[in-house]
Amino acid sequence: MTITHDVRATISALRAEVCGLHSELTRYQLVVWTAGNVSARVPGHDLMVIKPSGVSYDDLTPESMVLCDLDGEVVEGDLAPSSDTAAQAYVYRHMPDVGGVVHTHSTYATAWASRAEPIPCVLTMMADEFGGPVPVGPFALIGDDSIGRGIVETLQGSRSPAVLMQNHGVFSIGTNARSAVKAAVMCEDVARTVHIARQLGDPVPIPDHQVTSLFDRYQNVYGQ
Amino acid sequence: MTITHDVRATISALRAEVCGLHSELTRYQLVVWTAGNVSARVPGHDLMVIKPSGVSYDDLTPESMVLCDLDGEVVEGDLAPSSDTAAQAYVYRHMPDVGGVVHTHSTYATAWASRAEPIPCVLTMMADEFGGPVPVGPFALIGDDSIGRGIVETLQGSRSPAVLMQNHGVFSIGTNARSAVKAAVMCEDVARTVHIARQLGDPVPIPDHQVTSLFDRYQNVYGQ
Amino acid sequence: MTITHDVRATISALRAEVCGLHSELTRYQLVVWTAGNVSARVPGHDLMVIKPSGVSYDDLTPESMVLCDLDGEVVEGDLAPSSDTAAQAYVYRHMPDVGGVVHTHSTYATAWASRAEPIPCVLTMMADEFGGPVPVGPFALIGDDSIGRGIVETLQGSRSPAVLMQNHGVFSIGTNARSAVKAAVMCEDVARTVHIARQLGDPVPIPDHQVTSLFDRYQNVYGQ
Amino acid sequence: MTITHDVRATISALRAEVCGLHSELTRYQLVVWTAGNVSARVPGHDLMVIKPSGVSYDDLTPESMVLCDLDGEVVEGDLAPSSDTAAQAYVYRHMPDVGGVVHTHSTYATAWASRAEPIPCVLTMMADEFGGPVPVGPFALIGDDSIGRGIVETLQGSRSPAVLMQNHGVFSIGTNARSAVKAAVMCEDVARTVHIARQLGDPVPIPDHQVTSLFDRYQNVYGQ
Predict the structure, then answer these.
(1) Where does the pLDDT of residue C6 fall: very low under 50, low under 70, confident under 90, or very high at 90 and above?
(2) CA atoms of C12 and D47, how far apart (whole Å)
(3) CB distance B168–A124 less than 8 Å?
(4) Residues forming a β-bridge with D119
(5) How far apart are CA D89 and CA D40, in angstroms?
(6) Fewest beta carbons less than 10 Å away: which of A16, B100, B165, D85?
(7) What does UniProt give as GO cellular component (chains A, B, C, D) (predicted)?
């Protein structure tokens, strides 16, 4: 594969961005040790940038990020890529609007995942960001396309940018890596708040049309 | 609107104060990503200073705070103000003694809010600060005055400086922005402690006249 | 009261120590805003050093600590002392071996306190430090000797260096301020661990003679 | 015992490593005050390096680590070694492949330990790292070989690198000190996630052959 000078600059910027975004995973305590990662698509190319496998967050540098093609094969990098590379490559191949993917085992979201139970949409903030429940994907072993396929099939049937893979953890997506990280952060936050709400009773449901109203406004009006 | 030199100095100081107070929201983990904000009234003027919408806490500067009138319209600022500006402006218009307003989705308080359940006053610290239960306000969609009206009507019937808006989160008030932040911090603290107490049984009630006695002393004697 | 040159040096050192120990309260998240304090007896004198009332932990300096007599009256200091001064002075007057007192509303311990339920001794670490359950003291309003008396009467019937005052929070003692802070830290830690243990079933009891054996060893052998 | 120049260099490096690894225990909040420690075997020698007893994590230096023989007797060091030295020495004597041992009272793991309940393997991450449930060892008093013997007998019947000692806490092992620390971090993480999962229902079991498949892959493929 020939990489032109222009793409070089894009890749270089994405290496720095992907590397830096891991500090949001540690800031919000979504990960322990080395168990979580961020990737980004190289826009317009069948390439992605992803964390190396088993490297501590403190030791990450832009240069240590691994450049892979969308079959998950290494194109450039001295280190082996995340063991989640194949799953994330599958997502990029099948969801052309996705520019970033994040994987964590964040505590509360993974607890819902271990019960194979979707997080019900009982918070306005959750309606804003997820537009409904956070759905559950299938149990899938690592090693073939079953994780990637489970992520894609579940997310394509939902407004949610995050999926709880059964007994496993969270995969989140976004138009870029930063928005995928935001979805991972918000997913854990609503997983925790709804868990705690449910411990002492039943949250009040929000009617579907109001969930939709909140979602539409937030996607179009919020922010700068 | 003409802004005189004297008011300029006040606004400049409030921009710095409001900006800086957001670090208390992150210190006590009341907010994730960009989901919470602080505002302050410009004393003696129909103006308020508030966080810009969707900007990360790390990136806030005094200059990026937005000056609005009390209809929530921008008077000065390059950025769009918080999407909660209309609600907070409503509070300033209808509660003349309020000098600061804070909004968060802090975890435990929002869990109570999602069940539409007031936090019972079973802690002396809660009697001190809240003078009784933390009340619940109505479910209200963003976009008109219904959030602002819900906040004001609920707080006017209570000693509490904080209200749990159903399925949504916390709004707190104070004579200035700092005391509104304090109320937001204390609200999450009592929401968490009473939640945990209730998980394993029933807290001992505190008789109403003792709640009142604690509240009166604290409001008049505590601090410098 | 005449304060000699020698006592001056002691007081100066205690001001620095008491001030610095507040950073352990924030490090272990035992306190929010200004709601907790440390004091130390001036050995051999009817004097104590304590945190000023309502001052933020970030703003504490050795000079801002307040010197009081053991009736709780200010001897030296520009600021009003903690509103817990009277209670802590009572402890120093009635427990001559106590050199330090700490007060917090730490979350899990205060949750047990709000149910008026002692923390059962089901952890070896708890046997080491507390020698049995952490006991509950009476509900008592601030303003006279009832809090101090409740602390003293409860601790005199127990090996525990910490007491849960009903609906209120924790008071802990030690031969000096540092050991009282340690007891406050350990009290929250065991309150949290036993709470979590109890959420999913019943901890295995530890027989009394083994609690005693652990306590005796730890008090005599542990550390340097 | 004569210590040759070559072994000196190894011991010096291990002192620095063991000292530094304690910062992972505090980073992940596995320990409070001084209640937890790391040790490492000196490869090829009947020697170990361990934390001194009762010293604050902030005050640890490589030089303050204590060199002991595998009977737990001090070989070099001005300070008394951890009170867990005898138990850890027993592990090194009876498990020749173990190069590092860690002891904590981390909250969620200790909660399971206080109920004498193994943590069921319901997370893929747990299958990866532990290869099955985290087992429970016997109640054992400090002072003879009963803690060490309980650790060894429990771990020898399990794939897990961590054991929950009843009413006590966690001991974890690894081929070196860093991998033992990783096991301690992961043990608390899965103890917390499975606890939270269980609070609202029953996690979906993972069939044994899939646990084995995940364990085998992770031990052989993950990382660099």
Answers:
(1) confident
(2) 45
(3) yes
(4) D134
(5) 10
(6) A16
(7) cytosol
State which residues form the domain around B111: 5-220
- Assess whether pLDDT exceeds 70 at residue B68: yes
**Coil, strand or helix: which one is B9?**
helix
* C131: its two tokens: 């020698």
* DSSP secondary structure of A149-218: HHHHHHHHT-S-SEEEETTTEEEEEESSHHHHHHHHHHHHHHHHHHHHHHHTS-PPP--HHHHHHHHHHH
Q: What separation in angstroms does the CA of A76 have from each of A55, A73, A102, B76, D28?
A: 17, 9, 21, 48, 33
pLDDT of C1 higher than 70: no
The per-residue pLDDT for range B113-141, each reduced to its tens digit, is 999 999 999 999 999 999 999 999 999 98
Mean per-residue pLDDT over chain A, rounded: 96
Q: Which residue of B has its CA nearest to A125?
A: B168
Distance between D54 CA and the closest CA of chain C, angstroms: 4
Note the Cα A104 to chain centre separation in Å. 8
B222 catalytic? Reply is yes
Q: Which residue of chain A comes nearest to D220, CA vs CA? A: A83
B153-198 pLDDT, tens digit per residue, is: 999 989 999 999 999 999 999 999 999 999 999 999 999 999 999 9
What pLDDT, on a 0 to 100 scale, did the predictor assign at position D199? 98
Specify the CATH number for the domain of residue B168: 3.40.225.10
**Cβ-contact A53, A83 below 8 angstroms:** yes
pLDDT tens figures, A120-149:
999 999 999 999 999 999 999 888 899 999
D126 Cβ contact list (under 8 Å, min separation 6): D119, D134, D186, D190, D194
Q: Considering CB atoms only, which of B55, B105, B111 is closest to A197?
A: B111
Tell me which chain A residues have a C-beta less than 8 angstroms from the C-beta of B108: 196
Name chain D contacts of C210, Cβ cutoff 8 Å.
Answer: 141
Place of tokens 């003078």: B131
Catalytic position from the list C128, C144, C216, C218: C128
Provide the whole-model pTM. 0.97
Q: How far is CA D3 from CA D51, D62, D90, in A?
A: 20, 18, 22
Higher-pLDDT residue of D141 and A60 is A60
d(CA B218, CA B130): 10
What was the pLDDT predicted at D36?
97
Q: Which residues in chain D touch residue C28, judged by CB atoms under 8 angstroms apart?
A: 32
Least CB–CB distance from C143: residue in B186, B202, B217: B217
Chain C nearest C-alpha distance from B69 (Å)? 31
Q: Hunting for tokens 């306000």 — which residue is that?
A: B137
Partner residue opposite D203 with nearest CB, options A115, A169, A195: A115
Q: Give CA C86 to chain center in angstroms.
A: 14
Q: Which of C35, C115, C143 sits opposite B204 (nearest CB)?
A: C115
Count the domains in chain A. Answer: 1
Q: pLDDT per residue over A80-91, tens digit each?
A: 999 999 999 999
Segment 142-161 of chain D within 8 Å of chain C by CB: 142-143
Q: Is C203 on the interface with D (CB under 8 A)?
A: yes
Query: How high is the ipTM of this complex?
Result: 0.96
Element (H, E) at C175: none
* Interface mutation target, options C26, C179, C181, C193, chain D, most CBs of D under 10 Å: C193
Query: Which tokens in the block code for residue B26?
Result: 């992150």
Q: Which residues contact D8 (CB under 8 A, 6 or more apart)?
A: none
D134 vs D119: CA distance, rounded Å: 5
Where is pLDDT greater, at C1 or C15?
C15
pLDDT digits (tens, 9 = 90+) for B42-52: 999 999 999 99
The answer to whether B47 faces chain C, any CB pair under 8 Å, is no
Check C111 against B196: CB less than 8 A apart: yes
